[in-house]
Specification:
two-stranded antiparallel sheet, alpha+beta, L-amino peptidase D-ALA esterase/amidase
Length: 330
């Protein structure tokens, strides 16, 4: 396994990156329509076509998920993905009409120091199209790329991270996170990640815990204060299990627990924390109780993906860009 979201067979990932504007988009596509749900725990979310993912809604499966920078402007990115999928003949057919289904969520990266003078229309439809056309199986870039290009946190540069695991039942569970948090992924002023207990090998530096955690280390560290803090961590957890939308919803909720184990504070009023959960349906669950095992794995892989995104990030080229973990501590 590659320790990436694409370890779940049938999932491809593509990025589009604009280092001039300091933003980008990341497309997650399913080879065949997948069952998807979403759990939003942040107080300031931005999303597109997520209502249809609720368990009581009619449509059971969708073609992909788009994650984008740009705040509300980034909600144009799923439209670019739909254009690319329509070109490829993807989508469900309704009396001759072809309808690709893409849900999306955005991060607020408008104040990261890079210029946002893109003219009358934002670039996000084109970024979504480019990311979708770039989607491939196998390895993909992490860090300052795609939707994580302009991501920041309270302490170090944010970015795109990913991680995967195999459960005792043989199911693969994997996550992709775009870390752009109000809170901090690191402890105090040091290099240690809050997600350190869940690290596998040295995937984010193997620094472990500090010798002790002082009261100052757990004091609030929030980006953008004293004005209202605005940010968001978004992402997706996926599995090869056969799940209903209701079960996917539970998986998304438990993956949000991983976000809260990796970032302090999480789910703040200015965060838009949103996590999708997708099931490709390749391997049935032997028993309903196995959903708890998937949820446990989802918690851990999402926490690891958050830390890994910050560990992989590089300091951006624009003036005033936030310094990366590597520049501060490596």
């Amino acid at each position: 396994m590659l320790n990436l979201l694409t370890d779940v067979a049938g999932i491809t990932v593509g990025h589009a990156t604009d280092l001039t504007l300091g933003t980008g988009a990341t497309a997650i596509l399913f080879d065949a329509p997948a069952t998807v749900a979403v759990a939003t725990l942040g107080g300031a979310p931005g999303s597109r076509d997520t209502a249809m993912l609720e368990p009581e809604m009619t449509r059971q499966q969708i073609d992909g998920v788009m994650l984008s920078g740009g705040s509300v402007y980034g909600l144009d990115a799923p439209g670019g993905a739909q254009a690319a999928l329509r070109e490829a003949g993807r989508g469900f057919r309704l009396r001759g009409a072809l309808v690709p289904l893409i849900s999306g969520a955005i991060v607020f990266d408008l104040l990261n120091g890079a210029p946002k003078d893109w003219g009358t229309f934002s670039p996000y439809r084109d970024l979504g199209y480019t990311a979708t056309k770039a989607a491939r199986p196998g390895a993909f870039a992490l860090g300052t790329v795609g939707a994580g290009t302009g991501a920041t946190t309270a302490t170090v540069k944010g970015g795109v991270g990913s991680a995967s695991a195999r459960t005792s039942t043989g199911h693969v569970v994997a996550a992709l996170a775009v870390v752009n948090a109000v809170g901090a992924p690191t402890i105090g002023d040091g290099p240690h990640f809050w997600a350190a207990p869940y690290e596998v090998g040295d995937e984010y530096g193997a620094r472990g815990w500090p010798a002790r955690i002082a009261p100052a280390d757990v004091a609030p560290r929030m980006k953008g204060l004293p004005p209202p803090a605005t940010a968001t961590t978004i992402g997706i957890v996926a599995t090869d299990a056969v799940l209903t939308k209701g079960q996917c919803k539970r998986l998304a909720i438990m993956a949000n627990d991983g976000l809260a184990r990796a970032i302090l504070p999480a789910h703040a009023p200015g965060d838009g924390d949103t996590v999708f959960a997708a099931a490709t349906g390749a391997r049935p669950l032997a028993q309903e109780e196995d959903l708890a095992l998937l949820g446990h794995a989802a918690t851990l892989v999402f926490a690891r993906a958050c830390a890994r995104g910050c560990y992989a990030a590089t300091t951006p080229p624009w003036s005033g860009g936030q310094r990366s973990w590597r520049d501060r501590f490596a």
